[in-house]
Amino acid sequence: MKTFLVMIALCGAASLASGQGLVIFRTYVPSSTPPIDAPISDANGTLLSGANPNYRVALVGGPATTGDPWGLTHRGNLPLMFNPTDPTISWVNFGTGTTPPDAPGYANTANRNVRVVLGADEGQLALVQVVAWDGPQTTWVQAWQDAQSGSTRIGVSGVLRLTMLGPEQYYAYLWGLQSFQIDFVPEPTMFALAGLAGVELLISRRRK
Question: Mean pLDDT across the stretch 200-207?
């Protein structure tokens, strides 16, 4: 019975992926044009290693027409992306080897690196982000929520605007991805103070 249910889930995933945009989840692709080399680190610049199972990284994405990107304090609506042949695979850990793409800082996606952009058909524009966190959470939404209370470190890449291509050899890569860091989310008061300091600096310069 259990095997039967798993087969149903996989068939459903394949059906969902049919005609949907697909992205290669690899953060190191030197042969790509442009090349991709975007390791992720903590606030001290230490690359995140798979030796810590709580260091997790995933993709979120959706159609550009309705997508709202995530921020450290802004709740977006781009959903977690999953593998088309196994929907239980979404986030992964980091590498533990000595050279990319198996080194710390890089997503350890191995041969399960395809992800589905639900709602973005082939030929359409999609918004995609890489997200990372330090914690046992199994979804990005939960990690982001916990980060708002200061209990989890998170990080979010810039928004990638990718055109969904056709057959497998033309899957979209994470073109334009840049390195980023995970850290605790600053409290709202810190943002307010930073804004106030900026205003005061602008006023003082105008007086001079």
Answer: 51
Pairing of the two strands 20-24 and 114-121: antiparallel
- Give 38-87 pLDDT, tens digit per residue: 999 999 999 999 999 999 999 999 999 999 999 999 999 999 999 999 99
- CB-based burial of residue 44 (10 Å sphere; 0-12 exposed, 13-18 middle, 19+ buried)? exposed
pLDDT in tens, 120-143: 998 899 999 999 999 999 999 999
The token duo for 171 is 């899957």
